[in-house]
Amino acid sequence: MLANRHRHHEWITLTAADSARLTPANLAWIPEKWWKLVTGEVQRNVAPTRINRRQFEVCFCAQMVRELKSGDVCVTGSDTYSDHRDELVPMEECERTRADYGEKVGIPVSSTEFVTHVRTLLTQAAQQADQGYLANPHFNIVDGRPKLDRYQKRALPTGFKELDDALRRKLDRLELSLLDVLADTMQWLGWGKHFGPLSGHQGKLHDEDRLKILTVFAYGTGIGPTQISKNIADVSARQVSFVNQRQVTTEKLESAISMVINGYNQFQLPQYWGDTKRAAADGTQWNLYENNLLSERHIRYGGYGGIAYYHVSDTYIALFSHFIPCGVWEAVYILDGLTKNTSDIQPEILHGDTQAQSAPVYGLAFLLGIKLMPRIRNWKDLKWFRPASDTTYEHIDDLFSKDVIDWDLIACHLPDMLQVAQSIQAGRISPSTILRKLGTASRKNKLYFAFCELGRAVRTMFLLEYIGDLELRQTIQAAQNKCEGFNNFAQWAYFGSDTIEDNARENQLKIIKYNHLVANLLIFHNCHTMTQAFKELEAEGMQLTPELLAAFSPYRTHHANRFGMYELRDRKLGPIDYGATFKV
User: CA-to-CA distance for 211 and 215, rounded, in angstroms?
Assistant: First the structure.
């Protein structure tokens, strides 16, 4: 292509040397639909005598894009398109630690035992669903199509409205601003200690806690350093920008967020709100300028922007945040939030929506010991795979296609799949890096097909459990609603602007992390004030029950003032009240 880039003729007649080099075997990478356009020949086995220059260039570039995406071609020294095999733990080391890894995750590591284990799980799940079909009033198969009844929304417990009104009155008396929230949590937790000079030396800023609070407030709410300097005395925009550029990084923000999560996990209230072993992932669009490397037009949200992707614990606190392009399949990044989460809350079950799943993601999650249980919009149209070709079922046989899991393929490539999982656990490679290679463009990668086969078995097991367990469906719906609630809560806190006004990708991610920190600090503060208010209401004679407390949420904003005169008050506070003396 490069040798003929200055030619102006549409068709290039091949010389004898060209024909010797461009044989049908060497041009096998050209897809069938492109062959006639490029060579003018109908038969693939006929050596071409000429090449259409323009069609050849387009075909070559299109195939190069596909090969780079799938990892079949790499760029030496690149970041995104490097050879991912160089980042994996060596196979010899994997073989030495494989038994310990299997014991930790709870799966057999020999190919025969692993296939037997997964096949048994799939067989048992199918048999259980078949046996319970007649006793399941919410699931039916009509004309070969599965149908689930809509479940009724759970009613609020008796006395909730009275308790909620009383709590609202107490919180409204606090006269709280977002700056007060940051100052109070700084006094309780000292989250600002994670920020400091990049050199690691002691910071020499005067009144540094105050500057750190104002910096987080400026970037986490979208106000920016200029408006902070106009609304707060004795601070300049340059001082706030200095702290942001010289003392705060994405990693430092993640450490501060992890500290807040650990403190939040000590409260008693979140124990009524959810299970720390569960988390949900969901994304929401943030507006960006159009002329931006990350910015894309989102067909669902409209407008140009990127996706802030959050992993939210079942107890309402956000564990991890990421900023990804609009056009990417969100499932590629769904496992990153759990592998990079360093807090005390370590979920084992992960929920999501339709974009949070694919066959390779199911397979990789299974090998990592993560149970993926998403809310899938088009679950009826997915293929259900049989454990064996001769397996039939009395009641649910119409659910299954004629396709059977290729157990031999899984057994053959299990060592390679475990190498990927062990490398992720060792921190050598992120799940998103490998899942980007294992996309639909991977038509030649045997590892992709192996992960797909394992994922199809795991997904079929989940669907069989999903149709037979009403409580599971309600739990998945509730977890996803919490995650969507955090999306709205975080954007409520980013009130200073409706657009991320920075074109640098790393700074865009920092703003998402700043906002994540502000949202988590407000959740922490709400949990603390609600704990104190509930104690006061209990002392006043109101009865608290686990059902009543479970109906509340820390996503409360009615008592927090975002606007007006900003004043950083020096409030003298007592120790954190974690609520261990509730009489529930």
Answer: 6
Helix (H, G, I), strand (E, B) or coil at 286: strand
Residue 96's SS3 state is helix
- What was the pLDDT predicted at 575? 82
- DSSP β-bridge partners for residue 326: none
Pairing of strands 139-142, 145-148: antiparallel
H runs (alpha helix) in 106-159: 111-131
Residue partners of 337: CB distance under 8 A and separation at least 6: 279, 281, 309, 310, 311, 319, 320, 322
Question: Residue 508: CA atoms inside 13 Å, Cβ hemisphere, count?
Answer: 25
pLDDT of residue 130: 93
Distance of CA 405 to the CA centre of its chain: 28
569: Cβ–Cβ under 8 A, 6 or more apart, which residues? 179, 180, 183
DSSP 156: P
Whether 583 shows a pLDDT value over 70: the answer reads no
| 128-145 tens-digit pLDDT | 999 999 999 999 998 888
Which single residue is written with the structure tokens 């397996």?
391
Per the DSSP assignment, residues forming a β-bridge with 140 are: 147
Confidence of residue 154 (pLDDT cuts 50, 70, 90): confident
Work out whether the CA dihedral 33, 36, 42, 44 comes out positive or negative: negative
Read off the pLDDT of each residue in 319-331 and give the average, rounded to a whole number: 87
CA distance 222 to 432: 29
Secondary structure element (H or E) that encloses residue 282, with its range: strand 278-287
Paired with 51 in beta bridges are 12
The count of other CB atoms within 10 Å of the CB of residue 155 is 8
Mean pLDDT on 96-123: 95
In the DSSP assignment, the letter for residue 396 is S
Tokens 């500290």 belong to 259
Helix H, strand E, coil C: the string for 2-65 is HHHCCCCCCEEECCHHHHHHCCCCCCCCCCHHHHHHHHCCCCCCCCCCEEEHHHHHHHHHHHHH
